[in-house]
Design a protein that fits this description.
Length: 428
């Protein structure tokens, strides 16, 4: 008997089944043969939230949640954060290898030459209400962008994919900046291709024709590193949406609009916004113990704490703490930092959090940094989306190139009524 198999005994029938094991998984479809009666559908697995289900084979990102390891295409996140830059990491995630010098220069040139958005889109952004949430504007804009390019039906074609990748990575900061400027009633700044990716974003957000305007290089570098830290995180909620929508061969703008919508939720990318609201609500470090007590009673969750995968520490949170120091040197400390540090201190030593392996995640400190840099709270998730864009695109491209992938179509356990006859209205 092969040792790389699993033997399952169905105690209902006494029958035994041998199921192959590959890469520490069993194919779910192998369970379908397990039946009591020939007419039965066969066994399935039940896994709400996909806590133990692999939906794809991927070569993009590796996470060891127990050891706190995060690798992009094999490279440790710490090395990339320190030595690379966001556009290079984007290339690495999407195309699988670090670019040569020439490729990197061409990639950067190409991205910088896809930063202008169609004027129709700029006008559509103007049609949003003055107080529209910029994340909703981003989600809407991605969807609108799918109307501009006629070749999208052919998204299995690699040249078509490559073009959309450039457009999306190039244009997203412009959309984000225009959404922000719309919100505060200021004229749009058009992209400046002489600046780095992050510096160009800061320029489009802030520039008001001051003669001595310069993007602060420390803040641009910090933003670039934050983008790297957010660039991919394997099969999280929004990436699963990107793949699910992409699996129907919908265009990448529509798929990414869905992915961004998933990111918007407070349990996912919306958590950085929720962390800030929570810290403001706590108000003072002395209120931390009573707040933590309420969390333990189950009244609400501690935002920015806990992770489905990391059960030791989130390596991104460690790098972020260092960036915070650099940023606060420029901006002055953020008063919310004291509350955050007190909260971390209490939670890390409290049995409730230790037992459940709840540690600060990437969103715990990113919001405080964004706020110190002057971003309004509702831009936080937009920044997360900009960072995550290469990851979504890499996963979408990998999906389309994977011959084993099919349209996503989960099963369900039906617990509703048996067949019954329609009751006319006057007899109910
Ligand atoms: N505060 C208090 N208790 C918590 C928290 C928290 N933040 N997170 C989990 N728990 C408790 C939960 O109540 C449960 O306790 P019990 O076993 O007594 O019922 C236990 O820990 C396990 O929780 P879970 O809901 O089964 O864990 P999960 O893996 O499904 O959820 C999570 C992961 C990130 C959604 C969750 O930890 C959470 O809601 N955190 C707060 C929101 C947040 O910071 N999200 C950002 C995640 S990182 C960036 C991203 O993915 O976008």
């Amino acid at each position: 008997m092969s040792t790389n198999t699993l033997t399952i005994v169905d105690n209902r029938t006494g029958k035994s089944y041998e199921v192959p094991i590959e890469h520490e998984t069993i194919p779910a479809i192998a369970l379908r043969q397990i039946k009591v009666n020939p007419d039965d559908f066969g066994l399935m697995t039940y896994d709400p939230g996909y806590g133990n289900t692999a939906s794809c084979k991927s070569s993009i990102t590796y996470i060891d949640g127990d050891k706190g390891i995060l690798l992009y295409r094999g490279y440790p996140i710490e090395q990339l954060a320190e030595q690379s830059n966001f556009l290079e990491v984007a290339y690495l995630l999407i195309y699988g290898e670090l670019p040569t010098k020439e490729r990197r220069a061409k990639w950067e040139y190409d991205v910088h030459h896809h930063t202008f958005i169609h004027e129709n889109l700029a006008r559509m952004l103007e049609a949003f209400r003055y107080d529209a949430h910029p994340m909703s504007m981003l989600i809407g804009s991605l969807s609108i962008m799918s109307t501009f390019y006629s070749e999208l039906k052919d998204c299995r074609n690699q040249a078509v994919q490559d073009k959309q990748i450039l457009r999306i990575i190039g244009k997203l900061p412009t959309v984000a900046a225009f959404a922000y400027r719309h919100r505060i009633g200021r004229p749009y700044n058009y992209p400046n291709s002489t600046l780095t990716y992050a510096a160009n974003l800061l320029y489009m957000l802030d520039y008001m024709h001051q003669s001595d305007y310069e993007v602060n290089p420390v803040l641009a570098k910090a933003l670039d590193v934050l983008f790297i830290l957010h660039a991919d995180h394997e099969q999280n909620c929004s990436t699963a949406v990107m793949r699910n929508i992409g699996s129907s061969l919908a265009d990448p703008y529509s798929a990414m609009s869905g992915a961004a919508a998933a990111l918007f939720g407070p349990l996912h990318g919306g958590a950085n916004e929720a962390v800030l609201k929570m810290l403001k609500e706590i108000g003072d470090a002395k209120n931390v113990p009573s707040y933590v007590e309420r969390v333990k009673k189950g009244e609400f969750r501690l935002m920015g704490f806990g992770h489905r995968v990391y059960k030791n520490y989130d390596p991104r949170a460690r790098i972020i703490k260092k960036i915070a120091d650099d940023v606060f040197e420029v901006t002055g400390s953020n008063p919310l930092l004291d509350i955050a540090l007190a909260l971390e201190e209490v939670a890390l030593h409290d049995e409730y959090f230790v037992e459940r392996k709840l540690y600060p995640n990437v969103d715990f400190y990113s919001g405080i940094i964004y706020q110190a840099m002057g971003f309004p709270v509702d831009m936080f998730t937009v920044l997360f989306a900009l960072g995550r864009a290469p990851g979504w695109l890499a996963q979408w491209r990998e999906l389309l190139m994977d011959p084993e992938q099919r349209i996503a179509r989960p099963r369900q356990v039906y617990l509703g009524s048996d067949k019954r006859d329609y009751v006319p209205l006057d007899q109910r």
